[in-house]
Each structure stands twice: as C-alpha cells, then as structure tokens.
C-alpha cells in the first residue's frame, strides 16, 4: 500500500481554514434561520430551490440540486410535509417518481426568511471579500464540485 502524501504546512493551513470556515458559517446561518425563522438550513435549501423553480420539482431534480441521496430527501420532505411547508404529488409520467410542491405556507416562510438570510450571508462573508476574491472563491468551489461529481448512491 502506498504511503500517504501528507499535507505540507501551507496545504494543512488551507485545508483546516476551509473546514473551520465551513463549520462556522454553517453554524451561524443555521442558528440565525432556526432562531428567527423556525427553519433549518436544510428546510431553507429545499424551499429556496422550489421557489426558484416555479414552486415544484421532480424529487430527483431537487435531490441533485441539494446533493442529497434519495432516502435523505424523502425523509426530509416527509418532515416538511408534516409542518405544512411542502406537499408531494405523484408524477403522471412516472408512477415511481414524485413531485415536491411548495405550499402557500412554505412560500410565505421562504419569502420572509430570504431577505435576512441574504443579509446574514453578506455580513458573514460576501461583504468582506473583494471582487477578485469572490471570483477565486467561486472558481475553487465550482472546480471542486465538478471534480467530485454527483452525490454517491
């Protein structure tokens, strides 16, 4: 078995910095959404994607957008359905598939949450970066996602 190619100090600093930043951003945004809006970060992602796509998406399309496995998406949609944020409809063209549909309550909640969420994202990250730094961050993120491909089974 090949020996591990350990990170050098610069690589380790970059990796650990990315991990710490991701954890801190996730925790801050999650806390803000839960406290202020009664939504989890996962709820927000689902509602945002639905609202940006005409209020309805096939579950496999939604799963690809949020990068979740089928079972996780199904369980989360079930919890959101119980709270009146989404409904699920059978797909007319595929009896095994379903369509996630945002409800009026879900639309109201995402509409109320989105402006402050964007302010939080700006305050935590975006407004502290230059245009060049934002471009670099976008290229890095897109490159990593492209290399990793879709989520596993």
Automatic annotation (TrEMBL):
Database matches in SUPFAM superfamilies: Winged helix' DNA-binding domain (SSF46785)
Gene3D superfamilies in the record: Winged helix-like DNA-binding domain superfamily/Winged helix DNA-binding domain
Residues of the HTH marR-type domain: 11-146
A Pfam family reported for this protein in Swiss-Prot or TrEMBL: MarR_2
InterPro entries per UniProt: HTH_MarR-typ, MarR/SlyA-like, WH-like_DNA-bd_sf, WH_DNA-bd_sf
Record's protein name: MarR family winged helix-turn-helix transcriptional regulator
Organism, scientific name: Actinomycetospora atypica
